Amino acid sequence: MRYAIVNADDFGLSSEENRIILAAFARGVISSATLMANMPAFAEACQAILAQGLQGRVGLHLNLTHGSPLSAALHDCPRFCTPAGQLSLRLPLGLPRLTARERQAVRAEMAAQWSRCLDHGVLPTHLDSHQHVHNRWALAGLVADFAARQGVPVRLARNLGRNLGPLKHLYKWLVNRRLQASGGSGGSGIVFACTPRDLEDGLLAARGPVEVVVHPTLLANGDFGDVYLAPETSLTTLLDHALKDYQRLGYAQLKARSLPT
Question: Which positions ≥6 away from 258 have C-beta within 8 Å?
Answer without folding.
Answer: 187, 189
